Amino acid sequence: MAVLPIVISGDPVLHRPAAPVTEFDEALSTLVADMFETCALAPGVGLAAPQVGVGKRVFVWMYEDEDHPDVPARGVAINPTLWIAPIEPGLPGEEEVEGCLSFPGERFALRRSNRALLRAQDLEGEPFEVEVDGWFARIMQHEYDHLDGLLYVDRLVHPESRGAQKAARSNGWGKPGLSWTPGIDDLEG
């Protein structure tokens, strides 16, 4: 296993839809193992392939939730589809703050749906389905967005969006080629 560099906002791979996985082979298994290693060291609760520069529809999660004992605390979603309950109107509260490894060290409030249904394939290409709510639903939505070329900061509303724009400018983000490596660089998201 290897720790992979995490690309930062502005890299083209983060801002375009990822391609479906068609080969369930050793290369995919290696990518997923490396993503788990990278996510654990970051530390994060999820990581999508575009975040490590791979434009494929794959994400991993590492989140143990006693409210969802039937959902593995460590999982991979390949070629997922995601359905969410309607998002409650209004501005996000303090409990709705999230961060992103591709926008490291910054956190902003974002209103998300409280429930999500994920359908995906596992490493062997077998279909599975999980239904989650609360913070677990937020993780699924966040990682799924990466596969569609969206970062959570793209969904922010004022004044949060202004704070994210300011953070990107002050950090020199928003251009291709920027990355950080967990365990080497002193960044976290």
Order of helices and strands: EHEEEEEEEHHE
How many domains in all? 1
- CATH topology (level 3) name: Peptide Deformylase
Compute the average pLDDT: 95
Structural class: alpha+beta
Radius of gyration: 16 Å
Number of extended strands: 9
Low-pLDDT residue intervals, each spanning 5 or more residues: none
Number of H- or I-type helical stretches: 3
Strand order within the widest beta sheet: 2-3-4-7-8
Give a verbal description of the structure.
- The structure is a single chain.
- With 189 residues, this protein is α+β, with helices and mostly antiparallel strands.
- It has one domain: Peptide deformylase (Peptide Deformylase, Alpha-Beta Complex), CATH 3.90.45.10.
- 22% of the residues lie in helices and 25% in strands.
- It has three helices and nine strands; from the N terminus they run βαβββββββααβ.
- It has helices spanning 26-41, 134-147, 160-171, and strands spanning 6-7, 46-48, 58-62, 74-84, 97-100, 103-109, 115-121, 127-133, 179-180.
- Strand 5 (97-100) and strand 6 form a beta hairpin.
- The longest helix is centred in the first third of the chain and has 16 residues, at 26-41.
- The protein is globular.
- The mean pLDDT is 95.
